[in-house]
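Database export, one record per block. Field names are fixed; values are copied verbatim from the stored entry.
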Amino acid sequence: MTDQELQALMDSDLDAGAKALYRQYAQYMYAIIFRILRDCGSREDVEDCFAETFAEIIQHRDGIHAETMKAYIGQAARNRALNYAASLGRQRKHTIPIDSIHEPVTEHMQEELEQKAAQQALLQKIKELGEPDATILVQKYYFGRTMREIGKMVGLNPHAAQVRCGRALKKLRKEMEEWR
């Protein structure tokens, strides 16, 4: 599609014109923005800047001449990205890196860390039980599902799922006693 056809489409049907503009120039705009923001911003920053640039181009479509459309789009992407980079730089001046903050470890934090370690160890031991035992235990005790629901998930009748659950719990208790 030529830029003249694209301009005419945007004038007659904005939605279709915006989609066509996106198909034709999205990669070009993204490349310009990415090149400028790659060292100072995240992927989300690039995507936000791209969305703002695209919205700005659609909003000011009446001021774009078909002969200079690519140049206009490139300059709009460049300017928006440079402004965005400057904004990110100003934000960083007022931000303290989290690594530089030394927070004392309190008893409460120590307890939370120990509890998290115990939960991770428990989940690891559950995984080591294998299937379908691991699925049965997780679905019953983490998600609160009934044996009927769990049985359907793992292809067992509810009674067989209950029996497997009991056996798995017994194995798990034995494993966790050794862990302590």
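Remark 1: The CA atoms of residues 53 and 59 lie 10 Å apart.
Remark 2: Residues 69-93 form the longest helix (25 residues).
End of record.
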